[in-house]
Amino acid sequence: CDPHKYGFAPKGASVVMFRDPELRHCMYSFATDWTGGIYATPTILGSRPGGVVAATWASMIKHGEAGYIETTRRIVGATREIGEAIEAIEGIELVGRPDVCVVGFGASPGSGLNCYSVKDCMKEIGGWDLATLQNPAAIHLALTLPSSKNVDKFIADLRTAVLTVSADAEGKYKKGTAGIYGMAASVPPAFIAESAKVFLDTMVSQ
Q1: pTM, rounded to two decimals
Q2: Cβ(115)–Cβ(106) below 8 Å
Q3: Domain edges within the chain
Q4: Distances (CA, A) of 184 to 9, 134, 189
Q5: Domain at 3-174: CATH code
Q6: Phi/psi of residue 47, each to 5°?
Q7: Max CA-CA distance within the chain?
Q8: Is 186's pLDDT higher than 60?
Q9: 78-85 long-range contacts, CB within 8 A, separation 24+
Q10: What pLDDT digit, counting tens, does each position of 121-131 carry?
Q11: Where are the beta strands (DSSP E) in 123-199?
């Protein structure tokens, strides 16, 4: 798990738990014939700074069990409240069950609505940066403690976005994310994979 998401720790710390030492051995990296001597390290990454681990520990001590329980109560409650609201909005429907901390939704069959257009509209009117999903087409919100405090605004903005996109006769919201994913659906997967490599090459070569 990543403590930075719901443990309120800095990024860079992760927790991996093993059932027994034999499984943990699969994580080890070592070279017994290296000219510099026998080299062994717990992970393939080798040495890492301990500052992030110390900060994660401090965060967990500060919040404590009671603090995390209260945070969980708020996030789960907010997630389910948004899920219930989505069920009442015409044109969209839930994808999966919003039981814990993620709400996914897409266009209802026959609605003619593009959920990616709703995503772009949500960004424009409320600054919501929702994540895209595919197969099936959908978008989702992963709730954290800050976003759980803005449930009413999210629901109101979502209602507005669905109505706005439904009435978009000029096709303003058919571009952007909707256009990208619409194009990707008609392109062979191998070509998309190669395009992703070009994108990453460009990003790391700057």
Answers
A1: 0.78
A2: yes
A3: 3-174
A4: 36, 10, 8
A5: 3.90.1150.10
A6: -70, 140
A7: 71
A8: no
A9: 78/143, 78/147, 78/148, 78/149, 78/151, 79/103, 79/143, 79/148, 81/151, 81/155, 82/141, 82/143, 82/151, 82/154, 82/155, 85/155, 85/158
A10: 999 999 999 99
A11: 131-133, 138-142
